[in-house]
Amino acid sequence: MPVEFQGRGVIPACLMPATASREIDRDSYRRHLGDLADVVGLSGIVVNGHAAEAHALATGEQIWGIETAAETVGDRLPVIAGIYYEGTRLASQMARSAEKAGAHALLIFPPNSLMFGGNERPSLGAQYVKDIAAVTSLPLVVFQYPRATSLSYALDTLVSLCEAVETIVAIKDLCADPRLHERTITALHGLSRPVHVLTSQSQWLGASLSMGARGIISGAGSVIADRQRALFDTFAREDSTLEERRALMQTIGLFVDALYRPPYVNWQARMKRILYEFGRLESPNVFAPLQEIDTVEWMETARLISQAGLSRDNLYSM
Fold first, then answer.
1. Local confidence band at 3 (pLDDT 50, 70, 90 cut-offs)
2. Closest Cα partner for 140 from 99, 170, 110?
3. What does the angle CA 80 – CA 230 – CA 233 come to, to the nearest 5 degrees?
4. Confidence band (pLDDT; 50, 70, 90) for 318?
C-alpha cells in the first residue's frame, strides 16, 4: 500500500550528520533515518528542517537528503521535505525538486527575507505559500513562527490561507503563545475542511496536547521521538491517567532543559553529541557557523538526560 501523509501524529525532524571536514556523513544519515523509522507509531519524518541545519546545506545537498530519505524509509513513513529559502523563485524550484525526489509532503518555512516587519504586510507571506502551492501537488504544512520574529501569520490570515489553498493539510505551530495556540486550534480544526494543528511547543507540550493539537513536529524528536509518541498516545487513549501524563511530561521537560537551555543556538550540537555518545552517529560535528559543545556543556547535558532516564540502552525504545 502506498505511503500517504495524513497531516497528524508524531513526526520527528531528523538531523544531518557531518564529517570532520564538514561534509555530509552519508552513511550516518541513512542509519539515523533508519533509527527513527524503527520507532513504533510515528507518522512521518521531516528532512531539511532546522534540526538538519538546512541553512548550511546547498540545494544539491538538500535534494540528496530528500532522495536518500525516500529511498531509505519512504516505503514505511512519509517524508516531509522542508522548503527553507529566502525567495519565492528558489523555494518554488525546490518544491518541484522535492516532489520529483520522492517527498510525500512539504513543510513551508517562512522566508527570512520578511523578518523586517513582514507580518505588518500579511499578503507577502500568504502569497509566498500560494506561489509554492501552485507548482506542486504535494500536501503542505505551513510553519507558524512566534510573532516576535515578524515571520508569523495573523490568525485571520492563516485561516484565509488555509481556506484558499486546498493542499494545506496542517500547520506546525511554534507561536509560543498559549492563548493564540488555543485559538488557532479552535479556528483551524473548525474549518469546513479542517487543517490539523501540529504542535512544536516543546516547553509546554502537554498543555498543547490538552488543547487538542493533533500531532507533534519537533527537532527534539531526533532524540526522543519515542517519548513524544508515548505522551501523544496518552492524550489519545481514553483510559490514560493524569499521573501517567504527568510522569511523561516531567521526563520530556528534563529533555527540553537539556536540549534547549541557553544558549539556545547549541541545540543541534547537543542532540548530535548525545547521539554520538550513545553510538548512533560517527561524530558530533555540526555545520559552520555552528560549533560543537565543549566538555563542560556536555557534562551538564549528560547530567540532565541521565536524570530523565535516557541512556544508550533505552534510546528510541519506549
1. confident
2. 170
3. 85
4. confident
